[in-house]
Amino acid sequence: MPRARAFEPDKALESAMLLFWRQGYDATSVSDLTGAMGINKFSLYDVFGDKRSLFIRTLETYSHEWSRPRLKLLRDPGGREGLIRFLDLMDEDRRKGNLRDGCLILNSLVEFVGRDDDVAVAVRSHMKFVEDSFKTAVAGMIEEGALPDDTDISARAHHLMTLVQGIIALSKSKATSRIAASALRDIRTSVAG
Fold first, then answer.
1. What residues in the chain have per-residue pLDDT under 70?
2. Helical axes 117-144 vs 51-61, angle rounded to 10°
3. Which end of the chain has fewer beta carbons closer than 10 Å to its terminal beta carbon, N or C?
């Protein structure tokens, strides 16, 4: 009779995600992972595969479990209200210190640029969802009359994405977190009109 697992894979995966998010892929050893996940190496390899496979899964977990619920506001309710609620949630995350490690996807993009096709696929998939979410919010603002009918939806969405990613990056450092807070307030004010 096979032995039951002595750990919960979802919780172990979340612990690995948080560790990769805080330290990055290269700086995280298998020993670091097993310690954070509360499992041994055999269990890690048996359930999650190697370190790289585990990392890919953590990117997917981050995208689906942490990031997409926040981005959902850009789609529902969408428009101006959704964008304001998204920015308010982002500011709350910033104040609570939830942005001090940046964005796992953006961190991974920087760390892996040109090095790994599977990481690139996971990053592109997530960024496409982010882009589509911002496009939905911008389209909603046009429908509401908050933006002119001739607004370039893609360009405006890309502009907002860039600002948001910049704010997240600035939130990583105590030295620049005030700049991030100010930029976030400015964006929210311009959206609220």
1. 1-5
2. 10
3. N
The pLDDT mean for the chain works out to: 93
CA-to-CA dists, residue 136 to 58, 73, 75, angstroms? 26, 10, 6
What pLDDT sits at residue 1? 44
For the chain, what are the domain ranges? 50-192
Interatomic CA distance for residues 125 and 184, integer angstroms: 25
Cβ-based burial of 125 (10 A; exposed 0-12, middle 13-18, buried ≥19): middle
Q: Could you say which of 1.10.20, 3.40.1350, 1.10.357, 3.40.50 is the CATH number of the domain covering 50-192?
A: 1.10.357
Tokens of 91: 């500011």
Q: Is 174 helix (H, G, I), strand (E, B) or coil?
A: coil
Dihedral sign of CA atoms 110, 112, 115, 117 in order? negative
Prediction pTM value: 0.90
Residues 177, 162: Cα–Cα separation, whole Å = 17
Rg (alpha carbons) of the chain, rounded to whole number:
19
Counts for the chain of helices (H) and strands (E), in that order? 10, 0
pLDDT in the model for residue 3: 52
CA–CA separation, 5 vs 20, rounded Å?
23
**Residue 56, CA distances (Å) to 46, 48, 190 in order:** 16, 10, 37
